[in-house]
Specification:
The protein is mainly α. It has one domain (2-196). It contains nine helices and no strands.
């Protein structure tokens, strides 16, 4: 799982060590490195995560999961009294889709691919989801949400390998979370030292 471990090392090194002391533009370096590693892995395996025949089945399953999860998130926000309007939320949808695509690309074509090759198909789904969630520590809300989401997304991708619907699912559920919960609950979606600095 050399590519997965390399990506984990890069991301965790940035969020725990580099981010607190570096200027904002430095984030482009680990992003470029992770994208480069994911593309390199895809070139080696031929898995680009966009199998045409899998698009519609993946779309159907991801739509069902996304609607169910979004309703649960909205209900939780309503019950907790944290549901609120956001003036900037819809203007960031395009950015959320791109960000979601990048994360889904690494999750499925690298983490899931290598995990299945190492521990088998079903256990690989769990391992990939745990690795993905680890990147969101120590934010307990975000770690739990990404673990649950990654388990569902990997389960879908394992059956229907097209990540385009999953990227939209990722973006829409992030948007639902931004509406449903307060920044105090989500930790401003920060990870690593950035999250600890809020405490």
């Amino acid at each position: 799982m050399i590519f997965s471990l390399a990506i984990l090392t890069i991301v965790l090194a940035y969020t725990w060590v580099i981010d607190p002391i570096a200027p904002g533009w430095v984030v482009s370096i680990p992003v470029a490195l992770v994208i480069g590693l994911a593309i390199w892995h895809a070139l080696r395996t031929g898995d680009w995560g966009v199998k045409p025949a899998a698009f519609l089945p993946a779309l159907g399953l991801s739509a069902a999961v996304t609607v169910a999860a979004a309703c649960a998130i909205a209900l939780a926000g309503s019950r907790l009294g944290t549901w609120h309007e956001r003036r900037d939320a819809w203007t960031s949808v395009a950015a959320l889709i791109l960000w979601g695509f990048g994360q889904q690309f690494a999750l499925h074509t690298v983490f899931l691919s290598e995990a299945r090759a190492t521990v088998g198909r079903h256990a690989g789904i769990v391992v990939a989801a745990v690795l993905f969630a680890t990147l969101h520590l120590p934010n307990p809300f975000l770690t739990a949400m990404t673990l649950a989401g990654a388990l569902a997304w990997c389960w879908i991708y394992d059956r229907h390998p097209n990540l385009l619907p999953l990227a939209f699912s990722h973006a829409l559920l992030t948007l639902a979370i931004l509406y449903a919960f307060s920044d105090a609950m989500t930790g401003h979606l920060r990870v690593g030292v950035g999250y600890l600095s809020l405490r």
